[in-house]
Design a protein that fits this description.
The protein is of the alpha/beta class. It has helices at residues 2-16, 89-92, 94-101, 161-174, 194-202, 213-221, 246-274; strands at residues 23-27, 39-45, 63-69, 72-78, 106-115, 125-133, 178-185, 207-209, 225-235. It has one domain: 3-Layer(aba) Sandwich (Rossmann fold), CATH 3.40.50.1580. The structure holds hypoxanthine.
Length: 275
């Protein structure tokens, strides 16, 4: 794995010609809008990068974008990999590790999720403050890659409190509603039954989805700070559970994605000012 990671990282170093990324960005289902904010973006299809997985989901394009957002040099993943697609978690987090090897110190991850907190409405945004790994597996299982990080990475401050402050302040400036809460990751691909939604709420989650947690585990392993955002695309709240249709999820992600982009842009501006 280490050899493959190096081959991918070396390929990208050459392609990027001295571009030193500071922030990694992972954009989930229907949340590609933020890439439009990227200045002077260079695009590299995943298929050109050695050992990079390629996405099997239609709604996820597979392209790495390198460019500038709010003065930060950003590597953006348009399209990500999910455990339910049949990849190992090591494959799912391969791009995160490569971005870490290229020098990112912060990762911003976004996703579409089902809201289980009754205060939520479809189309709203939740900033992730913590997570529950319900995948039954970890990208860090197996022999530890010592070059990347320790055997037992600490997870008590996985979602960076300082950056959370920037995004909170940005949401306030925008006068926009932003929930904060715990994201639970399940393997999927089936959505949850009403009993499962109740269970997820009971054990302390505010939203549930099928991604993000592997990426955050891999990033924290490497000491990379993390921020996460969920677009609430449907509700797993008793009495308000509806049939989930992919197109509805995409529509809700687009609505939430606009707010999310503004919050992320505002937060990055504050992070830049604080640098
Ligand atoms: N559950 C799991 N994953 C999801 C959901 C959900 O309700 N909505 C979008 N992704």
């Amino acid at each position: 794995m280490w050899t493959e990671l190096n081959e991918a990282a070396n390929f990208l170093k050459k392609e990027l010609q001295g571009f030193q990324p500071e922030i990694g960005l992972v954009l989930g289902t229907g949340l590609g809008q933020l890439m439009k904010e990227m200045k002077d973006a260079q695009r590299i299809p995943y298929s050109a990068i050695p050992h990079f997985p390629t996405s099997t989901v239609q709604s996820h394009a597979g392209e790495l974008h390198a460019g500038t957002i709010q003065g930060f040099k950003v590597l953006g993943m348009k399209g990500r990999f999910h455990y339910y697609e049949g990849y190992s978690l090591a494959q799912v987090v391969f791009p995160i590790r490569v971005m870490g090897m290229l020098g990112i110190t912060h990762l911003v991850v976004t996703n579409a999720a089902g809201g289980v907190n009754p205060d939520m409405e479809v189309g709203e945004v939740m900033m992730i403050t913590d997570h529950l790994n319900l995948l039954g597996d970890s990208p860090l299982s197996g022999p530890n890659i010592e070059q990347l990080g320790p055997r037992f990475p600490d997870m008590h401050d996985s979602y960076d409190a300082t950056w959370a402050g920037y995004f909170r302040q940005a949401a306030q400036h925008l006068n926009t509603k932003m929930h904060e809460g715990v994201y639970a990751a399940l393997k999927g691909p089936a959505l949850e039954t009403p009993a499962e939604y109740r269970w997820i709420r009971t054990i302390g989650a505010d939203a549930v989805g099928m991604s993000t947690v592997p990426e955050v585990l891999a990033a924290r392993h490497m000491g990379i700070g993390c921020s996460g955002f969920s677009a609430i695309t449907d509700l797993g709240v008793p009495g308000r559970i509806r049939k989930v249709v992919l197109q509805d999820v995409l529509n809700a992600a687009e609505t939430a994605g606009k707010t999310m982009s503004e919050i992320i842009l505002g937060g990055l501006r504050l992070a830049q000012e604080a640098k």
